[in-house]
Amino acid sequence: MQLWLIRHPPPQVAASVCYGRTDLALADDVAAAAARIRPQLPPHGPLFTSPLQRCRQLAAALHPAPQSDERLQEMHFGDWEMTPWAQIQREALDGWAADPLGYRPPQGESVTELQARVYAFVAEVRGAGLERAVLVTHAGVMKVIVGLAQGMLPQKWMALMFEYERVIRVDIECP
């Protein structure tokens, strides 16, 4: 199965702020972003999107009937959401650094929980027999899927970086 992964355009938030599930508006014109991205996509097939507006708006500009799926949302940073990284307690960040897969920010989710829900989405799409699909999503979700497709260890895929509006095509082997 071929997946085209698209990271949403830049949201209206300062670069120094922790955000994940916060439903932020886009900073730029979605039509211009869609025009830049559209030539990189296959001409037909389903498009799945995170329900957060920064993805949903782009998905609607790219496809006549995008399908929203909660599992494509960014990691939930809980109480850290919309807090400048510099204001998050050092002990909390050290706890996350000591256990990057298992640490859960207060009221949030762990990377392992993010990975499980993304894997469940991919398994469902594969199980539906789709040959290709487009996903408008977030950097965290893209990291998980690229790691799965390339058989990377978590330390490698967690370090991946994706720019806004980046399109990546990956092949997921079907069992």
Give the secondary structure arrangement, pairings included.
Layout: E1 2-7, E2 17-18, H1 30-37, E3 47-49, H2 53-62, E4 67-68, E5 83-84, H3 90-98, H4 111-127, E6 132-137, H5 139-150, H6 154-157, E7 167-171
Parallel strand pairs: 1-6, 3-4, 3-6
Antiparallel strand pairs: 1-7, 2-5
Account of the 3D structure:
The chain has 175 residues and is of the alpha/beta class. The chain has one domain (2-171): Rossmann fold, CATH 3.40.50. The protein has helices at residues 30-37, 53-62, 90-98, 111-127, 139-150, 154-157, and strands spanning 2-7, 17-18, 47-49, 67-68, 83-84, 132-137, 167-171. The strands form two sheets. Strands 4-3-6-1-7 form a five-stranded mixed beta sheet. The radius of gyration is 16 Å and the shape is globular. The relative contact order is 0.24.
Based on the model shown, name its key terms.
single chain; 5-stranded mixed beta sheet; Rossmann fold
Number of strands: 7
Helix content: 25-40%
Quote the CATH topology.
Answer: Rossmann fold
Any guess at the CATH architecture?
Answer: 3-Layer(aba) Sandwich
Number of domains: 1
Evaluate the radius of gyration. Answer: 16 Å
The helix/strand series, from N terminus to C terminus, equals EEHEHEEHHEHHE
Unreliable stretches (pLDDT < 50, length at least 5) are none
Strand order of the largest sheet: 4-3-6-1-7
CATH class: Alpha Beta
Amino- and carboxy-terminal Cα gap: 10 Å
In this structure, how is the largest beta sheet organized? 5 strands, mixed
